[in-house]
Give the backbone structure.
Amino acid sequence: MTTQEEIIKVRKPRPDHPVIKEIANRFSPRHFLSEEINIDDINSIFEAARFAPSGWNYQPWYFYWSKNGERSFIKMVACLEKYNRYAQSASVLVVGCFIKQFKGKKSYYRHDLGAAVMSLVLQAQHLGYYCRQMGEFDGSKLKELLTFDKEHHPFVIIALGKLGDYIRIDKNLLKREMEQKPRKKDFVKKLD
Ligand SMILES: Cc1cc2nc3c(=O)[nH]c(=O)nc-3n(C[C@H](O)[C@H](O)[C@H](O)COP(=O)(O)O)c2cc1C
């Protein structure tokens, strides 16, 4: 029987240098507890996204969310690629959208949405939750099934919740969960 501790041991980052604990503990699980998240935590998680930096302070992001069991949640799950359907165990699903605002200036909307999402993810981690971002979903179907403002372009779906207990879990999913996610080391160069 695999335990949460074993998953954490395998998946937890192994930084070579000290980093804040939210980064040192963060990984993206595919198995969640499904229990309800209190609204204060939800508000804090979105508040963190709100204060992300953005080009020209355009804040070109918008988030739609729903709770496990709700009609919109079930529709979101149905739009995910099959291999992403593990997300049905999440407590909350969030659709992160970008907004293509230009106003005559260069816009960095995908980058800015990413920054807002990372703020959200780290705040969630700080509060004891985990997130897994998913880019692989049927965007056209999602727009058919749910009502989005026409300026809001769904780009990522985020599964959010407490880490699952890993006792009742599909064998194949568990195998995927036990894979390490190593990081390349060659990514920074000090210039002369
Ligand atoms: C923009 C983006 C899209 C992603 N899409 C998917 C996805 O469709 N399905 C999935 O299972 N994971 C997806 N991931 C999760 C990554 O695979 C994961 O973050 C990566 O393997 C590193 O693992 P870690 O987050 O546990 O460190 C996505 C992550 C990002 C940032």
